[in-house]
Amino acid sequence: MFRVLVSDAISEEGLAPLRTSAHIDIVQKKVSEAEGELHTFDALLVRSATKVTEELLEKMPNLKIVGRAGVGVDNIDVDAATKRGIVVINAPNGNTISAAEHTFAMMAALVRHIPQAHISVKSREWNRSAFVGKELFGKKLGIIGFGRIGSEVAKRARAFGMTVLVYDPFLTKERAEKLGVSIQSLDEVLAAADIITVHTPLTKETRGLLGTENLAKTKKGVYLINCARGGIIDEQALIPFLESGHVAGVALDVFEQEPPGDHPLLTFDNVIVTPHLGASTVEAQLNVATQVAEELLHFFEGQPVTSSINLPALSKDVYEKIQAFYHLGRKLGLIASQFMNIPVQELSVTYAGTVADLETTYITRSLLAGFLRPRVASTVNEVNAAMIAKERGITYGEKFSDETHGYANCISLTVHGENKTFTIKGTHVPNYGDRIVHFDGVAIDFAPEGHLLYIQHQDRPGMIGKVGNVLGAHDVNIATMQVGRQEAGGKAMMILSLDKPVDDAVLNALAQIDDIETVKRLEA
Ligand SMILES: NC(=O)C1=CN([C@@H]2O[C@H](COP(=O)(O)OP(=O)(O)OC[C@H]3O[C@@H](n4cnc5c(N)ncnc54)[C@H](O)[C@@H]3O)[C@@H](O)[C@H]2O)C=CC1
Ligand SMILES: O=C(O)CCC(=O)C(=O)O
Q: Where does the ACT domain start and stop, copy by copy (predicted)?
């Protein structure tokens, strides 16, 4: 049974896909009300109210996935989640239209003084001259951040007869042309726009993007809108520009602190505000809840998730194609790590044959996770493997080759340690399974499954019998045995698969046999 804690208000209808599963138990409670049972949850579903901090993650050791029913993940410590191997997913486009429409509603309300006029009429006044506005038609709209929401705002602006100026350092020329906008520098947008709306995420680069210096570059009488994230427009820096009348009006849906409390900006008549309502429509909430609920279901069914923040994107189709190699990669990493039980600096993975044409990033991550698993105490999986490898000074890289050694596909892993290099190669045979076909310089053929014993010895007659006797004397049954050698009379090896793991006494007894040089237990 998977336990899901839904800690913010999320559309009931959207949660339906999760409710249909007999294996999922949904608990709807605030984190503060679930203190005593936090350790029992496998998944956490939030909007923006719950702060998913490192401290909270520490209290949830069983947590495997955090779902954000929305776009921005700035309420989630993604690095802390990644370190713990927790997948973070969001609903990247379920609320795009709602946020764009809200931005537009704010823009119209701002230039036509609708909220102020509304309050006035409700106060039994009829003051038509106090609320003379401006048309949007013919005005220049500056859009900072031209992703999903920014581009939807642009479409609506063009329909209103506005000229759209765009600043987004990551926007390609091709995409800009496709969307019918021209890319400008930030300074050009600031200098020319009558209205500026921001649609970036809140990052180190965008925090305070519209601060004192850049606000001074704007046109006198400019209108500003922030329906993205509090802090992109510096709230303190705005105050003197409002006081001097340089900024004619501001529309804010988001704040540096939410709720903003007794904020000085709220005292300005020409600052209009909403309580983070951009995504608050029936449609958006249904969309985002359905998207994350479906993704959670995929995750628990062992299928790939496509909207992960901290994993490479993987579609179901691609996953089906790589699945077998994903498992083979994990086994190669796991076996290599145990065999090379010394500090290592570098892993080099080479793909050849049919596997080389697939999405190998995921296979490499799986291999890396397999490699790190015996070495780290904490959870390691394909989410945090790259980060853990980096922390431990292990670099890794992928190569592609035509050398398949006669197999349809071949994955080769070379591990570079301080004084030793080890190579293992494997192949996946459809309807048969995984095979290790090369082990430390020797061609061999065994299934990477269960309790394995590696014995390296000199190639002499009678070795198999001696090993069999020792194992028999210790009541260890041999399931399979594969032998290989570099040359007659030279380095040779046996890989045995056993019905149960062997203890140190067995390893020591085997190591006493003349001509046996190394004995290692390998679990696959
Ligand atoms: N008020 C609300 O309820 C809602 C707010 N949002 C927020 O709206 C914002 C935009 O969301 P989406 O359009 O879905 O995101 P997106 O990821 O599709 O677009 C963001 C764009 O910002 C650009 N960008 C990044 N750094 C930049 C920089 N330094 N300068 C200029 N552009 C930069 C990126 O290249 C990208 O094109 C996010 O902050 C999101 O959290 C989203 C939905 C609802
Ligand atoms: O959940 C909400 O209402 C906030 C939406 C939002 O800000 C986002 O999706 O980034």
A: 452-524
Task: Say how many C-beta atoms besides its own lie within 10 A of residue 453's C-beta.
Answer: 23
Query: Ligand 1 centroid to 276 CA: how many Å?
Result: 15
C-alpha–C-alpha distance, residues 246 and 144, integer Å: 20
| 510 pLDDT higher than 90 | yes
pLDDT digits (tens, 9 = 90+) for 309-343: 887 777 778 888 899 999 999 999 999 999 998 88
Cβ distance 518 to 456 under 8 Å?
yes
Q: Is 270 in the pocket of ligand 2 (CB under 6 A)?
A: no
Q: In terms of pTM, does the model score above 0.80?
A: no
For residue 331, the surrounding DSSP H or E stretch is helix 316-339
Q: Which residues touch 511 (CB under 8 Å, ≥6 apart)?
A: 519
287 Cα: distance to centroid of ligand 2 (angstroms) = 12
Cα(69) to centroid of ligand 2, in Å? 7
Residue 48 CB less than 6 A away from ligand 2: yes
CB-CB contact of 257 with 265 (8 Å): no
* Global ipTM: 0.99
Mutate to test the pocket of ligand 1, among 168, 173, 202, 226 (most ligand atoms within 8 A of CB): 168
For residue 477, how far is the Cα from the chain centroid?
44
Is the separation of the CB atoms in 14 and 69 below 8 Å?
A: yes
Do the beta carbons of residue 181 and residue 146 sit within 8 Å?
yes
User: Is the distance from CB of 272 to CB of 103 less than 8 angstroms?
Assistant: no
460 part of the active site: no
Tokens at 67, concatenated: 């779902």
DSSP string, 75-124: TB-HHHHHHTT-EEEE-SSTTHHHHHHHHHHHHHHHHHTHHHHHHHHHTT
